[in-house]
Design brief:
The complex is a heterodimer of chains A (278) and B (470). With 278 residues, chain A is of the alpha/beta class. Chain A has nine helices and 17 strands. In chain A, the strands form four sheets. In chain A, strands 12-11-10-9-13-14-17 form a seven-stranded mixed beta sheet, with helices on both faces. A five-stranded antiparallel beta sheet of chain A has the order 5-6-2-1-7. Chain A has a three-stranded antiparallel beta sheet with strand order 4-3-8, with no helix packed on it. Chain B is built from 20 helices and 15 strands. Classes of the chains: A alpha/beta (278), B alpha/beta (470). The complex binds flavin-adenine dinucleotide (FAD) (2 copies), iron/sulfur cluster and FE2/S2 (inorganic) cluster (FES).
Chain lengths: 278, 470
């Protein structure tokens, strides 16, 4: 059992942070890696990125958006409750090195995934410009933490309720126009990563994206997480989750993410109905 | 003597009672129902008690078949289980999944003129009798040695090593990457062929003997082999199986509802997708299902799809019936359940709809040509013989390879070109001191009994090493 020792609600309760006791994972985790969590005996295996850790307390942090039954069940877990299983760290760590100017672009919950990577690039001696965005002010997360690990931080909201009005790609274009950029790291909803990659291709700037296909084992045993990168099929859980954004077939990924939409809806509706009746 | 043997030949091989095909093709309960004590004794009495029993030579772990069968014939079921345990610690599993027709039963002299003795059915009977009505008496354990052994992977190979070393007085901890133990016995082989409570009860009895279980431990990621040694373990056995799924590498293979057999069976068995939404993990319910391949894995996938409500399930295999690698019993069961065989048929590409879901497979008819390096006649395409099959679910069951997660984390472990661990054939020793390996990660995907056999030899070698230091 893996105990939750701290918990926070963000973005009007649509995004949840958990700190979970997992000393063995803490000892190994590097930026860019993820864990798989299972709430109970009948639960799904859900991949979430390690967004931070506390070596002294032996805890990892995950931040997730409530989008379906499994994440809704996670949301119902309180401090003191426990996940039945937490498995990791999985996936390849981000290849962090000193490159010069790195631009980190995050959207929605992707900012949580982006944070440890941004900190890694900053600590490696890079000049870091971060661009984070959300639909609206209340949904923006981790602004302070991102500020703490960036030389410059730009904030955008789609509706202009905070920061600059517009998409992260607008702010990124501005940076690309006005400075030399050695690497862009873009993490967020798949369409956002697709647009960022299309933009950076025009400027010929290497771009890393972090992919989130549906997974089962997370250790390369099922092929459920396969994505097309260039001409090759890759397993995101072991070959990734980070890939060259200029080579990823984002449309294929978007389709595969919808593989179970009917069942997901059924499970979520059932769950909400049961919770409603209690 | 002559009189006695003619009398015996008259008793036919006792059939295994089974669920009727029409009923079982839609449920997940076990297909064979098991012998009664009476039937088991009748069957066992057919044995000729050969002086030089051929059956034993056919058994990869040399179970003393003649003796255990003799004990069954006399109704001494407890003695029979102890006789089997001398060589095989998972008889309830082996009785159900071993390919007896090419092992013990394939050699049995009764088979020369008539039907061989039903050794598998008897083994299964004895193990089930012990589990449900036996004394529950565990084999005696040696004095504690104070030595600690880590077993990585909880499939049949790892479980055998664990069982043997516990009895010899060593402390054993089982490290397993999944949230549940059992390896392929749990995530791969379906409930209707190997009920999961049987595997659970085998593991529970190892726990009673003191085995510790460490699930959610992906060795190579969560902990490394060196860290296991730093934690005070004296030896490590690696039995991580061959879990890397192979695909065909043909166009359209990443469409939705094309699964590797590993994914399909893991969703169904380990995650209990067949009980969705009671269990949260979904699985596609295909109406027109195509399964590529003809081994046990393919049969299990096809029969699972049938049980999940398919209207039609087709096995597509590029060679002919004679080359199908599955156990004879599984092919027979599959056909009884209405699964069709498209032999000498090779898939070429998949097409999908606007949502990216598979709708069609194009294939080509093959014919047998010259023998290839494996001695089997090589299938060659017949020119112009392309045709298409409509399908909404495809399961690719064309084999598996070595998963590199553990092996690539430790450069001291030497690998073959294809990524399998190089281990001494007799002892299971790897190139890293204090580390043994066996089962599918050494041989490539093979059988439960071979994985267990490798475990047994390695356990002997580990015991020697812990006792004398080599
Ligand atoms: C390596 C990896 C790291 C991830 N890290 C995070 C993270 O740090 N924070 C976070 O909030 N989410 C993360 N995800 C996504 C997260 O796993 C899914 O949101 C979660 O599985 C949804 O489960 P559910 O049952 O609540 O929703 P479901 O009912 O399964 O799905 C509801 C909706 O979410 C979409 N969805 C389902 N699975 C995924 C998925 N794997 N990725 C994206 N959308 C999905 C569906 O298409 C559907 O629209 C990560 C995914 C991967 C593969
Ligand atoms: C669907 C299917 C049906 C089959 N049917 C039959 C049959 O009827 N008869 C027969 O004889 N054989 C059958 N086989 C083959 C047989 O199951 C295997 O040969 C046998 O299970 C191999 O045993 P093993 O102990 O080597 O590995 P496995 O049973 O594969 O177990 C390996 C275990 O190691 C774990 N593991 C992997 N990597 C790590 C890691 N890094 N750290 C920790 N743990 C790890 C895995 O999760 C798994 O639990 C079948 C196989 C499949 C897939
Ligand atoms: S070969 Fe057949 S008849 Fe002879 S001992 Fe073995 S099981 Fe009995
Ligand atoms: S999740 Fe199974 S191979 Fe990646």
């Amino acid at each position: 059992m893996f105990k939750i020792v701290d918990r926070k609600e963000m973005a009007d309760g649509s995004i949840i942070m958990n700190q979970i006791e997992a000393p063995r994972i803490v000892a190994k985790a590097k930026p860019g890696q993820f864990v798989i969590l299972k709430a109970n005996e009948t639960g799904e295996r859900v991949p979430l990125t390690i967004s931070d850790l506390d070596a002294e307390k032996g805890t990892i942090e995950v931040i997730y958006m409530v989008v379906g039954k499994s994440t809704a069940m996670f949301k119902a877990l309180d401090v003191g409750d426990a996940y039945q299983d937490v498995i990791g760290p999985l996936g390849k760590p981000t290849d962090i090195e000193k490159l010069g100017h790195v631009v980190c672009v995050g959207g929605g919950t992707g900012i949580a995934v982006l944070f440890p990577i941004t900190r890694g690039f900053k600590n490696a001696g890079n000049q870091v410009t971060s661009i984070i965005g959300a639909r609206t002010k209340d949904l923006l997360i981790l602004e302070d933490k991102m500020k703490g690990v960036s030389d410059k931080l730009r904030v955008c909201t789609d509706d202009g309720s905070y920061g600059t009005k517009g998409f992260v790609t607008d702010a990124l274009k501005d940076v690309l126009e006005n400075s030399r950029v050695d690497l862009v790291v873009a993490i967020g909803p798949v369409p956002m990563m697709k647009f960022v990659s299309a933009l950076t291709r025009e400027y010929d700037v290497r771009t890393l994206v972090s992919l989130n296909p549906i997974m089962i084992d997370g250790t390369g045993m099922c092929g459920c997480c396969r994505v097309t990168v260039g001409d090759e099929t890759k397993f995101a859980c072991v070959d990734g989750p980070e890939f060259d954004g200029h080579l990823v077939d984002f449309d294929g990924l978007i389709q595969r993410l919808r593989a179970y939409e009917e069942q997901e809806k059924e499970a979520y509706d059932n769950y909400c109905a049961t919770m409603g009746n209690q | 003597m002559a009189e006695k043997s003619t009398k015996k030949e008259k008793t036919p091989r006792q059939p295994m009672p089974e669920q009727a095909p029409e009923a079982r093709r839609r449920n997940f309960e076990e297909v064979p129902l098991g012998y009664s004590a009476e039937t088991a004794m009748t069957e066992a009495q057919r044995c000729l008690q050969c002086k030089n029993p051929a059956c034993v030579k056919g058994c990869p772990v040399s179970v003393d078949i003649r003796s255990f069968v003799g004990l069954v014939a006399e109704g001494k079921f407890s003695d029979a289980i102890h006789k089997i345990w001398e060589k095989n610690s998972l008889p309830a599993v082996c009785g159900r999944v071993c390919p007896q027709e090419i092992q013990c039963e394939g050699e049995c002299v009764l088979g020369k003129k008539g039907e061989p003795l039903a050794i598998g059915n008897l083994e299964r009977f004895v193990a089930d009798y012990e589990r449900t009505q036996g004394s529950g008496e565990l084999p005696p354990k040696a004095e504690p040695t104070g030595k600690k052994v880590a077993v990585v992977g909880s499939g049949p190979s790892g479980l055998t090593v664990a069982g043997d070393l516990l009895l010899k007085g060593h402390e054993v901890t089982l490290f397993e990457a999944f949230h549940k133990t059992g390896g392929v016995l749990v995530y791969g082989i379906p409930e209707f062929r190997l009920p999961k409570d049987i595997v659970a009860s085998e593991i529970a009895s190892l726990e009673k003997q003191g085995m510790k279980i460490d699930c959610d431990a992906v060795v190579g990621k969560t902990v490394t082999l060196d860290e296991i040694f730093e934690d005070g373990f004296d030896a490590v056995y690696i039995g991580v199986g061959a879990g890397l799924p192979r695909f065909l590498d043909i166009p359209g293979e990443n469409l939705i509802n094309i699964y590797s057999a590993n994914e399909y069976l893991t969703r169904a068995n380990l995650m209990k997708g067949y009980r969705f939404p009671e269990y949260d993990t979904p699985i596609a319910m295909g109406k027109n299902v195509v399964v590529l391949g003809a081994g046990n894995v393919a049969m299990d996938s096809a029969r699972t799809a049938m049980r999940l409500g398919a209207d039609s399930v087709r096995i597509v295999y590029r060679r002919s019936r004679d080359e199908m690698p599955a156990r004879a019993a599984e092919i027979h069961h599959a056909e009884e359940e209405g699964i069709e065989m498209y032999l000498l048929t090779n898939p070429l590409r998949f097409d999908g709809d606007e949502k990216g879901r598979v709708t069609r497979m194009e294939c080509i008819q093959m014919e047998l040509g010259e023998p290839d390096e494996s001695g089997r006649r090589r299938p060659v395409p017949i020119e112009g013989a392309e045709f298409t099959m409509d399908c909404d679910l495809v399961v690719v069951a064309v084999g598996a390879g070595a998963n590199p997660v553990l092996t690539q984390s430790d450069p001291e472990i030497a690998l073959t070109r294809r990524g399998y661990i190089i281990a001494d054939e007799e002892t299971g020793k790897t190139t890293k001191p204090g580390v043994w390996a066996g089962g599918d990660i050494v041989t490539g995907q093979a059988t439960v009994i071979l994985a267990m056999g490798a475990g047994r030899s390695a356990a002997d070698s580990i015991h020697k090493y812990l006792t004398w230091g080599w």
